[in-house]
Design a protein that fits this description.
This protein has 15 helices and 20 strands. The chain is an alpha/beta fold. Strand 1, helix 1 and strand 2 form a beta-alpha-beta unit. The longest helix is centred in the first third of the chain and has 16 residues. The chain binds aspartic acid and magnesium ion. The site of magnesium ion has 4 residues, from loops. Magnesium ion binds next to loops.
Length: about 425
């Protein structure tokens, strides 16, 4: 018998019929002898609707009050799900985040969980109940409602699993696992049976959006085995089969992981970025800071950064930003930074893409970068920027080559083969 936390996303609880299906699925696990804590999101589209309502009143909604509004979506689904379970003869009880208490910091709209009180949940589990807890929400030290950022119920589920030392956290969603790359781009993409936390974090950072990145970081830090699996399968699928389905995000030491031995686990891509180059910057201490300091102060995230080797006392600095921050960053650099550091020019390009290969095996294999660059060269794809970590190589290329680059890399690293 295991303690399992199961999270169901907005689509999975998007209608009364789907909520009944979730209840059937949960009831099946309960009948197999497991203890369950279930975390639903709001019904699909509901959080968007609530935020839009708030924006009709205030263009920039007050952050505290926005949380009061946005947190209601999950209060509906926990109640409905508890009822659907009761209807199947399963003892169940629902709690909001503040009833539990899921305590967070006070950063409204993007709060971080700091602690979870287990008392009520433990007592209910002991009494044989399925406990249904609202995702996405918490309460700060002064009893203000908070929410954890969009997609935050993934983090709620993983945090509950960590606090309760659950055996596994199941994230049910509308895809059946983590793939070697986006199957919409590459039909040969395969579902990974296992992947490490480190790889998942790199893939999420590189554009793969199966789970909220914060949830994966949480799972890695507190070592919560987390399984991504489909909520679209038959709810009556035997428990033993469901328990092996999807993708398990796990530790490198997991014996399953050692068996897979892939050098590269996935190809990720991101078309949401833009590139900025600051030309002919005086090559002296403090210049990178003079450029990127104001960018950071304006809350603009910078990703790939490349500085050229200096020539004649001058250098160029290039970096990428989120495409939605592109105009703001360009304006800031031209109006404030350029007059100050006296660079020759600031140019930008928002038709770029980032393509990354990710894999733990990179650490013990030489020549992976060379193989990646050769593969791209053979297709005539020019590499504009390169950055690497221990388990990831990222290139910035022209956006129109994204699909081609992903496809040829997927093939070159034999990700289409079992
Ligand atoms: N309902 C929230 C959202 O849409 C949280 C979640 O779905 O994870 O962002
Ligand atoms: Mg969601």
């Amino acid at each position: 018998m295991a303690l399992i936390v199961q999270k169901f996303g907005g689509t999975s609880v998007g209608s009364v019929e789907r909520i009944r299906n979730v209840a059937r699925r949960v009831a099946k696990w309960k009948a197999a002898g497991h203890d369950l804590v279930v975390v639903p999101s709001a019904m699909a589209g509901e959080t968007d609707r609530l935020i839009a309502l708030a924006r009709q009143i205030q263009a920039l909604p007050d952050p505290r009050e926005l949380d009061v509004v946005a947190a209601t979506g999950e209060q509906v689904t926990i109640g409905l799900l508890a009822m659907a379970l009761m209807d199947l003869g399963v003892k169940a009880r629902s709690y909001t985040g503040w009833q539990v208490k899921i305590v967070s910091d006070s950063a409204h709209n993007k709060a971080r969980i700091v602690s979870i009180d287990q008392q009520r949940i433990r007592a209910d589990i002991h009494a044989g109940r399925v406990v249904v807890v609202a995702g996405f929400q918490g309460v700060d030290g002064h009893d203000n409602l908070t929410t954890l950022g969009r997609g935050g119920s993934d983090t709620s589920a993983v945090a509950l699993a960590a606090a309760l030392k659950a055996d596994e956290c199941h994230i049910y969603t509308d895809v059946d696992g983590v793939y070697t790359t986006d199957p919409r781009l590459v039909p040969e993409a395969r579902r990974l049976r296992h992947v490490t936390f480190e790889e998942m974090i790199e893939m999420a950072g590189a554009g793969s959006k199966v789970l909220q990145i914060r949830a994966v970081e949480f799972a890695g830090k507190y070592r919560v085995p987390t399984r991504v699996l489909s909520s679209l399968t038959d709810p009556a699928l035997p428990v033993e089969e469901e328990a092996r389905s999807g993708t398990l995000i796990t530790f490198e030491e997991d014996p399953h992981m050692a068996m897979e031995k892939a050098v590269i686990s996935g190809v990720a891509f991101n078309r949401d970025e833009a590139k900025i180059t600051v030309h002919d910057v005086p090559d002296r201490p403090g210049v990178a800071y003079a450029i990127l300091g104001p960018i950071a102060d304006s809350n603009i995230d910078v990703d790939v950064i490349v500085q050229n080797i200096g020539h004649d006392g001058m250098t160029d600095l290039s970096f990428t930003v989120h495409r939605t921050d592109y105009a703001k960053a360009m304006k800031l650099l031209k109006s404030q930074v350029q007059p100050h550091i006296k660079c020759r020019d600031v140019t930008g390009d928002d038709r770029i893409a980032k393509v990354s290969i990710v894999g733990m095996g990179m650490r013990s294999h030489a020549g992976i970068a060379a193989q990646m660059f050769r593969t791209l060269a053979e297709e005539g794809i020019n590499i504009q920027m390169i950055s690497t970590s221990e388990i990831k190589i990222t290139v910035v290329i022209e956006e129109k080559y994204t699909e081609l680059a992903v496809r040829v890399l997927h093939k070159a690293f034999e990700l289409d083969q079992e």
